[in-house]
Amino acid sequence: MNMKLKKGSKDKANKKLDYASSGVDIKRADFIKSKIKELASRTITSGVIEGIGPFSSVLKSESEILLATCDGVGTKILLGLKYKKEKWLGKDLVAMNVNDILAMHGKPKFFLDYIGVNSLDDVDVLGIVEGIVEACKESGCSLVGGETAQMPGFYKRKSVELVGFCIGFADHNSLPKINEVKKGDLILGFPSSGIHSNGFSLIRKLISQKKIKIDSDFDGEKLYNLFLVPTKIYVEDFFKIVERFSFPKASAHITGGGIPGNLSRVIPDGLSAFVEKKVLRDISEKYSRNIFSLLHNFVEERELFRVFNMGIGFAMIYDESTAKKITENFSDVFIVGFIEDFEKEKVLIV
Predict the structure, then answer these.
(1) Strands (E), 73-203
(2) Where would a tag sit more exposed on the chain, N or C end, judged by fewer CB atoms within 10 A?
(3) What is the pLDDT along the chain (350 residues), one digit of tens a residue?
(4) What is the rounded distance in angstroms from the CA atom of residue 279 to the CA atom of residue 259?
(5) Which residue ranges form the domains of the chain, and what is each CATH number?
(6) Which residues have C-beta within 8 Å of that of residue 218, sequence separation ≥ 6?
(7) Phi and psi of 145, rounded to 5°?
(8) 3-state secondary structure of 113
(9) Which stretches of 85-171 are DSSP H helices?
């Protein structure tokens, strides 16, 4: 028997999804973050230069600037466990933290983890730690401790909670100088390896609604492999540029909130960052297998940019002359935008 959808049902089936429909309210999260920042400010002591707000906190010792971060992997864990990618999840956990240290122009030094499970028989904990160790080595960071908590009755069977903590160090002169960003500066971007570790609640919603078949092939690879490829670590690439040229004026780790939500944090009042869509598409096609074009079939473009990295996982702002010299000398960094007078929003995708 042939069944025809009623007009309302058809419209509903064709409607593109947004992050809120998958249970993640960005506006509400921003409000809660602002209240947390307000509450935490009451605890600030003389050793704190920057508390909640930047990509990492900035702390002062007698001789060095200390940077501290805390981050996780989000609901990527659910798909990672299903497809037995525990090692990749461990790499993600480190990457999400060390890249935040990097955004404050520091070198990550010490890493600690929290792994919470119902039972050690449920999850390949050693596989996760192997991934953590590999990523720590790649980023020049020492795994110095952590907590593996067995909490039956609290965590569900076959589930895991992952939280990472990183301490890094920076010099006073290397910290971002957002007030020096000016009209005419250029924005450089390091390519992402794919989705990285944000937006998976929306991806899982697309899977549950059968809009995406995660076991299918895409660009010659199983789709779940493309979704779950670990977050790229940028420490080595970043400091190769710094050693040859200089620190950027400012940097941004492109995570939850996408390019607009993260790059806007380092754009001074009175200016706007213009990021070029065509350049991002070209980068994504080459480095992340054009995975974002698939998602565009089901999610409005503006929402994609609010949720995903769209091809670049890390952005840096340099003066025009230095930016061009960098791209002439390094093949895996690209000019993705420019700084101009303020126009409507801090970050515009053009």
Answers:
(1) 107-117, 142-150, 160-170, 186-191
(2) N
(3) 444 555 555 566 667 887 677 655 667 767 766 775 777 577 566 667 776 677 776 777 767 899 999 999 999 999 999 999 999 999 999 999 999 999 999 999 888 899 888 888 888 988 998 999 899 999 988 887 788 888 888 999 999 999 999 999 999 899 999 999 999 999 999 999 999 999 999 999 999 999 999 999 998 899 999 999 999 999 999 999 999 999 999 999 999 999 999 999 999 999 999 999 999 999 999 999 999 999 999 999 999 999 999 999 999 999 999 999 999 999 999 999 999 999 999 999 99
(4) 14
(5) 45-174 (3.30.1330.10), 178-349 (3.90.650.10)
(6) 226, 289, 291, 294
(7) 170, -175
(8) strand
(9) 86-103, 125-139
- What's this model's pTM, rounded to 2 decimal places? 0.85
**Token couple for 52:** 């909640």
Structural tokens at position 259 = 């390019």
Which residue, 39, 34, 60, 143, is CA-closest to 98?
143
